[in-house]
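Example (one chain per record):
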Amino acid sequence: MSDEASFLTPMPVLPTVSASSTMQVGRINVYNAASAALAPTLPAISSQPENTRVMVQKYDSSANAVVLTCAAGDSISGLWTTVTLTRQGEMIELAISGGRWHVVNHYLPTPAGQVLTDGSVATVTGKTLDGTHNTFLNIPVAALTQGAVRGYDPDGNPVNYAVVPMTDDEFASLPAKDPATVYITIPAT
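Predicted structure:
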């Protein structure tokens, strides 16, 4: 390892595109998905040198996603073949290292330009987010539903966990707890 400082050169911004084209390396690729969702393809790792970088930004405010898609056989961090950008201004930077794309940087703007800092509180879609504890304070029990979250097992392998809300009494009465389930308990009313 060297004591020399390493600096990344700035990337030029390409004109905004509205098509699912292959991304250009060494550039900021800006996609406008206002008309439809887009699925631009990352360049094949085999065709690029080590440390190749690419940045992608979602330009528009529509609900349409920009889904970055790996070339056949490639992956991002050995875990994913796609990454989805959903918010206006959201940006991700990827670089090739060790035969894989890796996330170098990810910018996710807060809704409506809000900035949440430690100790601040903001209201998002009628719910209050406590910035100190990164928790929502006023979610009604009726709003909790079953679902799933993606996590990692102790060996670092991706795992999908079921999410099940239930009362404290229901949780206590379970004969066995499933290790692939996240239980959210609420006091019985």
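Caption: Residues 31 and 172 are 50 Å apart (CA to CA).
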